[in-house]
Amino acid sequence: MSHVTRAAIPLIAAAALSGAPAVTATASAATVPHAAPCPPRIVADWARAWNGTDPRALGALFTARGVYTDLGVGVTFHGREEISGWKARADRLIDGVHVTVRATHRDGGRLTVEAVYAGHLKGVPEAFAVPMTTLLDLDGHGRIASDQDHYSLAEVLTQSGLPADWTPPAS
Q: How many CB atoms lie within 10 A of CB 136?
């Protein structure tokens, strides 16, 4: 093992433990790996729709028979109109509802999106920011046929300062 490689091992280990990008070294030079590729356009559009104020923007990303399932709350919506209605309800209940994409993985027509779901439930003490995984199944034209959001409602409630049996007001 060369002196440069031996010297780089603690740097690589420290970077891995800190979550920083790893730095690799060879006998000739140290290099930083290329940045992760941008998420597919549909994922960027999906995050922009969640972060925006027009509920129809989210519904428009789906096929006419698209299905949206929020497994944290345990609800399913069918078609663009119902999906747009779910986004409108989220906007009424949550100030600053926001999705931050951390990573995207593709396997054929299925995208796995690792994200942070955040906001502040109206009228409660604290904001929340919880990890979320979303599975997007696409049709042959790049539209979302199915969306399954996985996150912990219990963690949302805990971070928000609410009891575990809290339910949102009917609207």
A: 23
